[in-house]
Design a protein that fits this description.
disordered N terminus; 3 helices; alpha+beta; globular
């Protein structure tokens, strides 16, 4: 993973819970106010530098994380911050 992919621009970093279907990007941060929750996400492969793509936004957030399809509640998804690929957002 190159340095460019891990650096991020604050204008396009959003919580996973705020992304529309089809949006993609790179995880840049997990909110760590609950270490147990952060640990569970890391165990699932949701780590800094992982590529994600949103597949579904209701009722839960369904997303690809690298090669794994995951489902989390919206509250959990709000703890995952993504540097969004500009070209993956709807116009």
């Amino acid at each position: 993973m190159g340095l460019r992919e891990l650096a991020y621009r604050s204008d396009v970093v959003r919580p996973l819970s705020a992304l529309p279907r089809g949006a993609a990007g790179v995880v840049v941060r997990l909110r760590d106010d609950d270490p147990a929750r952060a640990g569970r996400l890391v165990a699932l492969g949701v780590t800094r530098g992982a590529r994600v793509r949103v597949l579904q936004t209701f009722p839960g957030i369904v997303f690809m994380c690298d090669e794994t399809e995951l489902v989390v509640e919206r509250g959990i998804a709000s703890h995952i911050y993504v540097d969004v690929d500009d070209n993956s957002l709807p116009a």
